[in-house]
Write a structure and sequence with these properties.
elongated; four-stranded antiparallel β-sheet; about 55% strand; about 0% helix; mainly beta; about 70 residues; binds zinc ion
Length: about 70
Amino acid sequence: MTSMSGLTDQLSEYCPSCGTERPHGVSVTLVTESDETDNAAYSREPYRVSECLNCGRRTERRMNDA
Ligand SMILES: [Zn+2]
């Protein structure tokens, strides 16, 4: 399993732009965070991307916030 492309869902969430709850398209993306090291211990971090279906505002949130 190398690439994981979403997994899209629709959720009603609060949108700061709209100032109210709106349906959001929610998906999960793996973002490669590479340092410029050769033997790249690069890591792929899952991000949760939600996009307001009303105004198009996108919110990306790192899921592994430790
Ligand atoms: Zn919105």
